[in-house]
Amino acid sequence: MISNDTRVILEATLPLVAEHIEEITGDFYPRMFAEHPELLNDLFNRTNQKSGSQASVLAGSIAAFATLQLDYDTATQREIIERIANKHASLGIVADQYPIVHKHLFAAIVAVLGDAVTPEVAAAWDELYWEMAHVLIGRENELYAAAGVEPGQVWRTVTITERDQVSPDAVSYTVATTDGSALPGFVPGQYISVQVPLADGADQIRQYSLTGRVGDPTWRFSVKLDGEVSTWLHEHAFDGDGLRVSTPYGDLTLPEDDGPLLLASAGIGCTPMIGVLHHLVATGDTRPVQVMHADRSRARQPHRGELGELVAQLPGATLYQWYEHGVDGAEPTTRIGYIDLADVPVDPAATALVCGPAGFMSSVRDALVDKEVPAERIQFETFGGVR
What is the required cofactor set for this protein (predicted)? Predict the structure, then answer.
């Protein structure tokens, strides 16, 4: 916990920092990559750097963590830390990398805020940074230990055993160990990182949700054609080829209780839901499950048949689907247009797992809150920026 003196200074300076936080993070990344170009090529998502979305994510995380120190909210802080720590673990981030970020982030703060950064202000924000870093490092080490690996040692080479076209622009891969042993287990909803060698020498990383069954000796994941890593996979990764992948991580997972579930996804965001549904089927789960999926058309929907087959095998499950075009809406649970829950009954006691683009997730969250589902029981995984 930060000191009371630091809390007072943070409260006084947070509005100024928040006003300039995206400018600060926009200055920070070029500084760090100038000294450590390998981080841009082999660790950070270059597409997100070009679009500026990574700077916005970092800015939001810092501002949110600082705000929570003033109005402490344990649940919200846990949610933030879990999401970041799982992402870091999937990338193999270790404690030694935090001082690199600290050096360049604080240089950016001074460059942007100038004389406003007095020694007292610098010390307060320094304490905040190391408090956040300490919490993250501790949680990341717990995740590494739970996976049975040393910190950062998450990478392995696997062999592609099967490649299937699951939509016109999405491919499913099944991978196995090179020696025939079983791959480590995972929790339904988790993802793996995949690192690929691009033509310019960079080794870029993206995350893909596991869609197979827990307990299978192999892993399965799907890749939509959308970006430099997915393009490389579509063009270069075939049966018999090797891939460099990480241990599974991720916090959008099946809750441990047996309460009602609501699974909402859009496009390739269906993949963590496919993994959850496979587990529910394999364990003979009878709880109420509402599955809601939105897509541009049936023709382009990834895993369309598999989704329907899994729902049909669950006695308590119902499938609702929305398409922008391509169907007449004659089926009572298939609609035309964007997702709309106005006439869909929702159990306020449900835990909701939501995955898709940011606009979709925001719309679904608002609709679920209107249906009296508590915000703390609505969990998210974004596709696009982190994938």
Answer: heme b
